[in-house]
Design brief:
Keywords: Cytoplasm, Methyltransferase, rRNA processing, Transferase. It comes from Labedella endophytica. This is Methyltransferase domain-containing protein. This protein is an alpha/beta fold. The chain has twelve helices and 18 strands. Helix 1 (24-32) packs across helix 3 (54-63). The longest helix is centred in the first third of the chain and has 14 residues, at 118-131. The radius of gyration is 21 Å and the shape is globular.
Amino acid sequence: MPFDFTALRRFPDVEAPNLQAFDASDRLVLDESAAALAGIEPGELTVIGDDYGALSLGAIALHGARRVRVQQDALSGELAIRGNAERLGLEGELVVGGLDAALVDGARVVLLQLPRSLDALDEIAGLVARHAHPDVVLFAGGRVKHMTLAMNEVLSRHFGDVQASLARQKSRVLVARSPRAETQESPWPRQRRDESLDVEVVAHGSAFAGARVDVGTRFLLEHIDRLSEGARTALDLGCGTGVIAALVAKRRPDLSMIASDQSAAAVASARATADANGVGDRVRVVRDDAASEIPAGSIDLVLLNPPFHMGNTVHAGIAEKLFAAAGRVLAPGGELWTVWNTPLGYRAALERHVGPTRQIARNAKFTVTLSTPRPS
């Protein structure tokens, strides 16, 4: 049956004229895997990192795949896949799950949108090699400008045969076969101690910055002692590995702390980080898209280190979405502490979405600001 890629939407993720729900690499992966898909039974296809459903729904519509297991780390992407499937009448053929053994158990074909992170690729490839069918074939596609030889090396740790397709429309597919028998135990998540901050960091492969504290977060944490003393509820919005939430919880046992992120890998990492630092009972970690499940006006203190990439695209949309979320959940008199790359000039957006904003600190790369909500 025909399949109209342009009918796919990104919603509830950020939508803009320069942001699409598919790219040429999706088409190439589906074309390169066509012969393999023709020989599988229902339930033998797994799709990982399928941004908005182009791979999983394309495999169903174009190649007759059935009962397709699909995983997307970002909650907004997962919701977009479900929404696209419903609009196309294909929702009955999808089984949405997490990045675990059940996702790939017995799979003979795995389609993958290559992640930006080599660590993420390592965790995914290891999972497939350990738990998929011994004859599994992994088709991993991406845009050539974002691909490196290191990706081949990572796949070769877990598969005996890794080949690259010919490039088409600035895209390429890596095809991996023959899982290595020695791939038995997963090193994920990884844990590392940051002595300067006295914190244990635990990270899955897809978590931003891995098991280290990124420089923006580190700069924000220099001002942790200046946070509102009267605050009783706090939110680490877009928490990543949960370092901010864990350290604030250690310093401020009086706070009721929530750590929220739409990334499944980040949520799993943040829970593990909280446990590793002895505050697992005082940090509630939730997978949530831009604090959508947190009641308006219920949070005294929001801490935010917003991402500035959407996939491989630099775009302010995700930051503005988080600023708006912070403005909604802040209680009267509350505080939003934000750290951001100075060249991005987020102050006007913070003023617009939250309220009066002043600079707390600035170094060669980052700015820390304090925003307070306008009186209603």
